[in-house]
UniProtKB/TrEMBL annotation:
The active site is at residues 90, 226, 228. It holds the Pfam family SNO. The lineage of its organism: Eukaryota, Fungi, Dikarya, Ascomycota, Pezizomycotina. It comes from Thermothelomyces thermophilus (strain ATCC 42464 / BCRC 31852 / DSM 1799). One of its GO terms (molecular function) is glutaminase activity. PANTHER family: PYRIDOXAL 5'-PHOSPHATE SYNTHASE SUBUNIT SNO (PTHR31559), PYRIDOXAL 5'-PHOSPHATE SYNTHASE SUBUNIT SNO1-RELATED (PTHR31559:SF0). Belongs to the glutaminase PdxT/SNO family. This is glutaminase.
Length: 259
């Protein structure tokens, strides 16, 4: 049995579990593989998980609740020490970033793991929510566009270069443990840009080269949008396959295969 948790402090939890259930029926395995989907609110529950989704919601609130429940350090351990597969959607992507900038609010505690800086609320308020069709090459050649739902969505403003990280780590010296913020994958896996939003009707808002809305770095995957609010299982299937590989072989495939 592979146990996949969804962090259930706040936000869109049930939607992910429903789509995970649906997606799991698309995964064929010769040995009657079983999945268990678990809502995670305690570190004991987290320790049962082989993989985790951090859902959308409101990342400041999520971080405050996680701190209060003593979950921040166990989460950092899960992501950065155990290197288990983790996927953050929207607020979850913010939680998994090493740095966050906000249009209004200031700093907040993060789990980290992705060597990126996110910009929160990139497209404005709830009322400016929108759906856009994205071409996601990782879903396979010729895959139909994915209807991406953006709700007060963050985007990846930039990737943090490894020289910057080294410098930061030198300055921190031995003081910064793995549990502290500011150390993603170290010199490990590179940040891969897996999805870009180029405007479609919001051209004026997306930068010239488009906004980065899906990234992966080793075991950590993040999307600005909410696949769990659609009935399109493709990204959940794609991710679950990586979870299966990582759980069985202890590593994630470098090249994504189609769904
Ligand atoms: N804007 C929210 C935040 O900053 C994220 C929105 C969402 O998850 N839909 O945390």
């Amino acid at each position: 049995t592979i146990t996949v948790g969804v962090l259930a402090l706040q936000g869109g939890v049930v939607e992910h579990i429903n789509l995970l259930r649906k997606a799991s029926s698309h995964i064929q395995s010769p040995d009657a593989l079983q999945f268990n989907f678990l809502q995670v609110r305690t570190s004991a529950e987290l320790s049962q998980c082989d993989a985790l989704i951090i859902p959308g919601g409101e990342s400041t609130t999520m971080a405050i609740v996680a701190r209060r429940l003593g979950l921040l350090d166990p989460l950092r351990e899960f992501v950065k020490v155990q290197h288990k597969p983790v996927w953050g959607t929207c607020a979850g992507l913010i939680m998994l970033s090493e740095q966050a900038a906000a249009t209004k609010q200031g700093g907040q505690e993060l789990v980290g793991g992705l060597d990126v800086r996110v910009l929160r609320n990139r497209y404005g308020t709830q009322l400016q929510s929108f759906v856009a069709e994205l071409d996601l090459a990782f879903l396979g050649e010729g895959a139909a566009p994915f209807k991406a739902v953006f709700i007060r969505a963050p985007v990846v403003e930039r990737v943090i270069a490894s020289e910057e990280k080294e410098q930061e780590q030198e300055e921190e010296g031995e003081a910064g443990s793995v549990a502290s913020q500011g150390k993603g994958q170290g010199k490990g896996a590179p940040v891969e840009v897996l999805g870009v939003y180029r405007g479609q009707g919001k051209q004026e808002e997306a930068g010239e080269e488009g906004d980065i809305v899906a990234v992966r770095q080793g075991n950590v995957f993040g999307t600005s949008f909410h696949p769990e609010l659609t009935d399109d299982v493709r990204i959940h299937v794609w991710w679950l396959r990586q979870v299966v590989d990582a759980t069985r072989h202890g590593s994630l495939p470098v090249v994504a295969d189609g769904v």
